[in-house]
Design a protein that fits this description.
242 residues, alpha+beta, 11-stranded mixed sheet, 4 helices, 15% helix, globular
């Protein structure tokens, strides 16, 4: 765990792949407990430490997770997410060249809870929710392609599902069509940048997460487009995740 940003009301950390954000049926220690321990030690907090989970990342995904340190921060961050005012940009390494260097994907996603998997359709079907995202090709190697992805809606496994439906499964993501798994069980999807107005101070918060410490990710680190603000990669009329 690496702390990227913190103040009295919120704390943002860079999650490693394989970590769970909040406790689940596996019984594995969640990231939220590590963050509580950090706060307790860093600020010599007596007793139980309050920590609110504002959103989640899938276990094999790395990158930014926002936690709330106060009940006020939690309720107001929840409101920001509900109103679509938290802007998130992801990076994905895919196996196939995208059909265009830049595009907006629109589809309809149905979640199968028993399989913990989503399915994407190009037309509305029963129980489907509209799914929209934008992507931009930012780098490539001789075997892989790096996409920046801007979420316009927030659906279950949306990026994984929509990129797979486009013919570009994420490296390591067997569930959505990757040829093979990654040795560490991760998938090459990284929550890279988040932007929002602080729910209490009303100052703008914009932070990036370092890329995973992996040879392939690190080989892409020098890409010029990754030095830019993620918001500059997409037109300004993009909506936020909701």
């Amino acid at each position: 765990m690496r702390v990227i940003y913190e103040d009295n009301h919120i704390i943002i950390v860079n999650k490693a792949s394989g970590e769970i954000v909040q406790g689940d049926k596996t019984g594995d220690r969640p990231l939220s407990e590590d963050v509580k321990d950090y706060i307790k030690m860093a600020y010599a907090k007596p007793g139980n430490v309050f920590l609110g989970v504002t959103h989640r990342l899938d276990r094999p995904v790395s990158g930014l997770v926002i936690f709330a340190r106060t009940s006020k921060g939690l309720s107001r961050m929840n409101d920001l997410f509900r109103r679509g005012e938290v802007h998130k940009t992801y990076l994905a390494i895919v196996q196939s060249a995208p059909p265009k260097e830049y595009d907006e994907l629109k589809g309809w996603i149905v979640r199968n809870e028993k399989q913990n998997k989503s399915y994407c359709y190009q037309h509305e079907v029963k129980d489907a929710k509209e799914a929209r995202l934008r992507y931009r090709l930012v780098a490539k190697t001789d075997r892989y392609y790096l996409l920046a992805v801007q979420l316009l809606t927030g659906r279950h496994h949306q990026i994984r599902c929509q990129l797979s439906a486009m013919g570009c499964p994420i490296k390591g993501d067997l569930k959505y069509g990757a040829r093979r798994s990654n040795p560490d069980g991760s998938i090459c999807l990284h929550a890279w940048q988040v932007n929002f107005e602080h729910p209490v101070s009303h100052q703008m918060v914009s932070v990036k997460a370092d890329l995973p410490d992996d040879a392939l990710w690190q080989s892409l680190k020098g890409c010029e487009l990754l030095k830019a603000d993620a918001r500059d990669l997409f037109p300004s009329d993009g909506e936020a995740v909701r």
